């Protein structure tokens, strides 16, 4: 069971600069007073009452903490401490300073498949460990795949943001419609029972993007994207996959499978010949193949621009709601509205009617 310390976090940690902001709080650099070591403090707003929309349910934070405590692995962000006050919970996490994997790759002039595979292998190792504990991440996207640092010749991958993660219990049937449209599995959209196989679909999407710089199911709108996912509407365009090996395409095809039971598991992925070649010919094919850097750089630039745009939109929306609240303060709202009036600061990004997307507070 998750243990929340009642001490004041500032008694033990010096609070530093803001590293990122999200829907329910922010991430700040903190320095441990006793050792001088720097960590990341994830400050999360907690709902004050059941009708509140401002902040997270304490139970969801408890689940995230329990999951992080259960997945101690070199490729998963480390949780050190948890503090609780009246209005917020603070998670003290490993400071992952290397930035996003996709940003790191986008800075390169070229990248062989064999080099990209070393990153994929680490992702799969972390995921395999999680799945062995019956835990699914459910939010595997580029923003949640980070590097421990960006100075090492072979940086370590870190999976972050377990806000949507779930621990499966025996006999449990779990459904959720949370996630990001272009990365979620068909069973999420269809509101069907979920399993760790949903993560493997996301691995297939991320691999497709990494190799080609193209998102396999991306439509003009989120609704179009969801329809493409349901219809399995994707292909390997020659223009984008001209330098891709047949083994890499086979790897993706064995993940982008509509039936979750027929997808490769993380363990099976680690044994696939694209990841672990058996013959010299397979090794040679990997070393001759490369990712489409020109297209990948364009995709990553668009992705970063969209993230910035969404953040600006959200900030403007919050300011607008605050102004509306001030303008209506002279009237006496009904008791329920008065009880929840602080919630007017809260907004949710709704990419489609089927989905509830939660902006990551770690990205």
Structure description:
About 40% of the residues lie in helices and about 15% in strands. It has about 375 residues and is of the alpha+beta class. It folds into 2 domains: about 10-95, Phosphorylase Kinase, domain 1; about 100-295, Orthogonal Bundle (Transferase(Phosphotransferase), domain 1), CATH 1.10.510.10. A 5-stranded antiparallel beta sheet has the order 1-2-3-5-4. A two-stranded antiparallel sheet has the order 6-9. Helix 4 packs antiparallel against helix 6 (about 195-210), helix 6 packs antiparallel against helix 9 and helix 6 (about 195-210) crosses helix 12. It is globular.
Summarize the structure.
This protein has 2 domains: 9-93, Phosphorylase Kinase, domain 1; 101-297, Transferase(Phosphotransferase) domain 1 (Transferase(Phosphotransferase), domain 1, Orthogonal Bundle), CATH 1.10.510. Helices cover 38% and strands 13% of the residues. The chain contains 13 helices and 9 strands.
